TrEMBL record:
InterPro entries: TGT-like_sf
Domain of life: Archaea
Record protein name field: Uncharacterized protein
GO biological process: tRNA modification
């Protein structure tokens, strides 16, 4: 399964110097929000601007969700222009998130289908339309509306799968399974490429997934353990995620850190090195057996 590692436009960490990286994802809205950055990216190209090697795919997300959080509704013509100016290899269609029991679900689904079909004719990158967890009749609208595509994404599942452990989580997992059974092309899981989710996505037959978990956890002073959760490694106060690393886990982390040329003290004090460490754990989790003594933990669908 292809793993796409997400980066903020303001700080692309050169992970490829430490591990094999297949693809990176950037946010078009973030880039376009800075006139200076956008012009540099358009003139130089994303690859040269960020020093991304030629064998690594560049993906762009529209940033529509982040824009909505700021009260901005992106327009198809703007996102299309960004994609054509920035020239990624793959790009995500401009979509409107559809929440559970959303009173505007039908309107949003039809707009998402319309956006995807319009953009597919205008962009130079390979466009992935997005499925959201919806009921039966709206799912069929998605399925028939995306008949033009050989590669699609499933979005809107991070709150259901990664932050809850109740019926909503089970419904989210079942939706992943349903889309895989019904959609004949390649499938990407938006935001779900965590170490714990990778075994499940591989089992379901997903072709790719992206994640910024490696970076987000590092920012909170956490390191990730292969196929498990994260642990606090710094001495800062714990505000959420109560597990501080124990001695056995610390020895395990130290062994992995040595592969990267890092020490435990490096991980405790340096955000970038924690981020690189976490990315290495996720990438290794995607290539089973890369880290010695790693045993995958299966995730049940029900």
């Amino acid at each position: 399964m292809k793993l796409v590692l997400g980066h903020p436009a303001s700080q692309v960490i050169p992970l490829w110097k430490y591990m094999k990286v297949e693809a990176v994802m950037l946010n078009a809205f973030q880039i376009a929000s800075s006139k200076k950055l956008y012009e540099r990216a358009r003139e130089m190209g994303l690859r040269e601007l960020y020093g991304i090697p030629p064998d690594i795919e560049i993906w762009l997300d529209s940033g529509g969700y982040q824009a909505l959080k700021k009260g901005i509704a992106l327009k198809v013509e703007d996102v299309t222009k960004w994609y054509n100016d920035l020239k990624p290899d793959y790009c995500i269609s401009l979509d409107n998130p559809v929440g559970p029991n959303d009173p505007k679900a039908r309107e949003k689904v039809r707009l998402n289908v319309s956006n995807a079909r319009t953009m597919s004719k205008l962009v130079d990158c390979e466009l992935l339309p997005v499925f959201h967890p919806v009921d039966e009749d709206l799912f069929l609208e998605y399925l028939s509306g995306y008949d033009f595509s050989s590669y699609a994404a499933v979005g809107g599942l991070i709150p259901r799968i990664l932050t809850v452990k109740n019926a909503s989580r089970k419904e989210g997992l079942k939706f992943l399974e349903r889309v895989r059974k019904e959609f004949p092309g390649l499938l990407h899981a938006l935001g779900l490429g965590s170490s714990k989710m990778i075994p499940l996505l591989r089992t379901l037959g997903y072709d790719s997934a992206d994640t910024q978990t490696w970076r987000h956890k590092a920012a909170y002073g956490k390191v990730m353990l292969p196929f498990r959760g994260e642990r606090h490694i710094t001495d800062r106060r714990i505000n959420f995620g109560k597990k501080r690393i124990n001695e056995d886990e610390l020895r395990e982390v130290e062994k992995i850190a040595l592969i990267l040329g890092f020490t435990i003290e490096d991980l405790k004090r340096d955000f970038v090195k924690r981020a690189i460490f976490n990315a290495f754990v996720i990438v290794s989790s995607n290539h089973l057996g890369t880290i010695n003594s790693v045993t995958p933990v299966p995730i049940e669908l029900s």
